[in-house]
Amino acid sequence: MAQKVPRAGLSRFMKEGSQFFKGTDEAVIRNIETVCELAGQIRSAYGPNGMNKMVINHIEKLFVTNDAATILRELEIQHPAAKIVVLASQMQEKQVGDNTNTVVILAAALLEHAAQLIYMVGILMPFILKSWGLTPQEVASGYELACDKALELLPALVVKEATELKDVDQVKRWIRSAITSKQYDNEEVIADLVSKACVQTCPKNAANFNVDNIRICKVS
Fold first, then answer.
1. E strand or H helix at 174, and its extent?
2. Cβ pair 133, 118 in contact under 8 A
3. What residue ranges define each of the domains in the chain, with the CATH number in brackets?
4. How many CA atoms lie within 13 A of 131 on its CB side?
5. How far is Cα of residue 81 from the mean position of the Cα atoms in its chain?
6. Among 49, 132, 195, 209, who pairs with 171 as Cys (CB 3.0-4.6 Å)?
7. Are the beta carbons of 104 and 85 closer than 8 angstroms?
């Protein structure tokens, strides 16, 4: 009878400090927990009443800001799942220029509800059978259907629409809320300056405007 040789295990093939998980469900849950933890760190900086964060990067440079894109960029996050959310936040910054914190918080909320669906217990009669709930693929498919339905309903929920982009007063009214979250108590002065600059630089067809044409410089 041959003697059974114990297996070495995957941990022996990896460097010290590495982590590995057994099964896809455990890995998915750990990734969801990481993203939720990341969102919890920057949720207090959300909105006009959000608190500033003090961040010291790898070269010991100090940042005091409530901008989620700046916070996430200086933290240099390495976790794969959290990095995907960070990339989504950076893409939001490039395309829209605001609401970076909203992207992280919304992604964490969706993943938190997805975890509840994965943990869901099924009950079969006449006996009770405890089992895992939906698979990650089923949850993703449901979210895609919900996204299509949301895009269908959103146009009917528009309250106001910016139609005249050459009107300084109208532009000022639209951008005031965005400036309030960054420069509270100074929004009136800054909104007036920014609205005039936007009207002067906006071409006839606003869709042709390229944000890369704007240069930003810091004056000490």
1. helix 168-180
2. yes
3. 17-120 (1.10.560.10), 168-213 (no CATH)
4. 9
5. 12
6. 195
7. yes
Residue 49 amino acid letter: N
pLDDT in tens, the chain (220 residues): 555 544 555 666 777 766 665 666 677 888 888 899 888 888 888 876 778 888 887 788 888 887 787 888 888 888 888 889 989 988 888 887 778 888 999 999 999 998 888 877 544 434 444 445 788 888 899 999 999 999 999 989 988 887 777 888 888 888 887 787 677 778 888 888 888 888 888 877 777 777 777 788 888 8
How far CA 112 is from CA of 25, 31, 35, 150, in Å, comes to: 14, 11, 9, 19
DSSP 80-147: HHHHHHHHHHHHHHHHTSS-HHHHHHHHHHHHHHHHHHHSPPP--SSS--------HHHHHHHHHHHH
The pTM score is 0.68
